[in-house]
Amino acid sequence: MSTLKLSGWVEINGQRLLPQEIESILNNRPEEILRFGGEFFFAGSGCRARDHFGIMPGNCPKGTLICDGVVKGAINPPVPDLPLEEAIITAVRLRGDEGVTALSGGVDSTLVARLAGRECVAVGLKDSHDLRQARHAADVLGLSLTCVTITPKEIETALPLVIRAIPVKDPLNAGIALTQYFIARWAGQHGCQRIITGQGADELFGGYSRYLETPTLADDLERDFAGLGQQADRDQAVAALHGTYLSMPYMDVRVVRAARKIPAQDKVQGGRRKIPLRKVAERHIPAEFAWYEKKAMQYGSGVWKVLQNLARKNGYKTSIQDYIDHIIRVEHGH
């Protein structure tokens, strides 16, 4: 009887491994685990291990193999250097055998949705920017899309659950996590454990508008890339509420390596952001999506405006943070 407990999936050299193959390696050639790629946490035979970037949560440091309480080494898959386009295609192929793609109509998610070819889900308030843009992208690309229309009341109900789950309890993280919550809820209700997303693209390719003005672009990108682990912790904590997890092709080791070789000034210039990603995307999706400048998900979904209204309604006219702190106090019975 199998003793392996596996969350996520494992690959070596671009080949997915079955659970029984992982178990055989664990029992007979445990040193091979240090070459594992994918998004995983597993435990069995006295060992536990977690993927290189720590995309999957688990009681183990990211990128580490521990057996019988002793650290056996760092998990660092020996992937080849690939051109960015090939790296992205490979990363999506490895994740595209199951699950649903979160689509908002921006370049990050539209490219992934096109390459994965799976059913898509979009979330937002009625008539929100993201629902309109996702519908348009799905229509043009011939993708199957479910639009999940959420209400202010649902957001109000979900907010305490989200705040309880996320590690950093501030307005930015709450706004993003709320949107993820409803995507994960739909996926869980429809039997989809894996949600393929565009997370990580902004930090790797220079997607934030503040990058247009900064005199320290390379340093900013480095700092924001270092914060991606914290973002993954937030998003996976919310996804886990519905028995799902987020799968992130842009955080594949191949894609990260290819992206980080591109000089910062080639990513943001002439008032344009994410230039290398958009150039790849243009070969797979129409230019109107490849070069589309989209709002962040908490704004495009309409969630941010509802958060502001809820804070106001509860007597916190100028601060969503004060409203969040109020919810935390109520949770703790203060």
Mean pLDDT: 94
CATH architecture annotation name of the largest domain? 3-Layer(aba) Sandwich
Structural class: alpha/beta
User: Could you estimate the helical fraction of the residues in percent?
Assistant: 40-55%
Number of strands: 11
Question: How many domains, in number, for the residues?
Answer: 2
Largest sheet: 6 strands, antiparallel
Could you explain how this protein is built, in words?
It is globular, with a radius of gyration of 20 Å. The protein has 16 helices and eleven strands. It has a six-stranded antiparallel sheet with strand order 2-1-3-4-5-6. A five-stranded parallel sheet has the order 9-8-7-10-11, with helices on both faces. Helix 4 links the parallel strand 8 and strand 9. The protein is 47% helix and 16% strand. The protein is an alpha/beta fold.
Q: What are its keywords?
A:
single chain, globular, 6-stranded antiparallel sheet, 5-stranded parallel sheet, alpha/beta, 11 strands, 2 domains, 16% strand, Rossmann fold, 334 residues
Condensed summary:
The protein has 334 residues and is α/β, with parallel strands linked by helices. It has 16 helices and 11 strands. α15 packs across α16.
